[in-house]
Amino acid sequence: MKSTASLFRALLALSLLTGCSSYRPTPAAFHEVLDQPYRLGAGDRVRVTVFEQDGLTNTYSVDQSGYLSFPLVGAIPARGHTAQQLEKEIADKLRQGYLRDPDVSVEIDRYRPIFVMGEVGAAGQYSYVPGLTVQKAVAIAGGFTPRANQGSVDITRDINGKVMTGRVLTSDPLLPGDTVYVRERLF
Predict the structure, then answer these.
(1) Could you tell me the superkingdom of the organism this chain comes from (predicted)?
(2) Mean pLDDT by 10-residue block, N- to C-terminus, for the chain (187 residues)?
(3) Three-state SS for 51?
């Protein structure tokens, strides 16, 4: 009887350890991207101002393939570029036979949405605003359910074309396009 109880305890401990082995710490790149300039992606909308050219000044969306369709010059690659890089790219294209010395300004009008799922009141797609944290996103999504693990969540983030998932605290900041998954607590 004593050996059966110790065998049972050993199997229980082993099963608990194997259950935790799937957890990996958050990759370093996950938090490093927070200190870098914002890079555009599909779903972002930018306000492009070409000074003294009212016909070109407008709001443009980055399409699913990562391009911005701009009058006169056509498709301009935008995915992975900062607003300053996009300014330069548009100005360079306009210099090629359209305008002598274009003065272009690009600002982000609307960020791509975030997604909140799991143990929240109303899972779904929500608008991103600068300064958004996990806790604020959960509040927007109707708060935690009674079964939710409120200490940490899993975030899936696209970093330089590579999709990564990491476990973070609820006080951590979010980026546009992040997917937040609130897990169910064990007890």
Answers:
(1) Bacteria
(2) 59 50 68 88 95 94 95 94 96 93 96 96 96 96 95 90 90 95 90
(3) coil
H or E element, residue 46 = strand 45-50
Q: Is the distance from CB of 151 to CB of 88 less than 8 angstroms?
A: no
What pLDDT does residue 19 have?
A: 46
Of 160, 120, 154, the C-alpha closest to 140 is: 120
Q: Whole-prediction pTM value?
A: 0.79
**What integer pLDDT is reported at residue 17 of this predicted model?**
47
The reported pLDDT for the residue numbered 78 is 96
- Across 57-128, the runs of DSSP E, i.e. the strands, are 58-61, 67-70, 74-77, 104-110, 114-118, 124-126
- d(Cα 168, Cα 60) in Å, to the nearest integer? 33
Q: Which residue has the tokens 């330069």?
A: 88
Alpha helices in the chain (DSSP H): 2-20, 28-32, 83-95, 134-140
At a CB cut-off of 8 Å and minimum separation 6, what does 143 contact? Answer: 120, 121
The contacts of residue 112 (CB under 8 Å, 6+ apart) are: 41, 42, 43, 44, 128, 176, 177
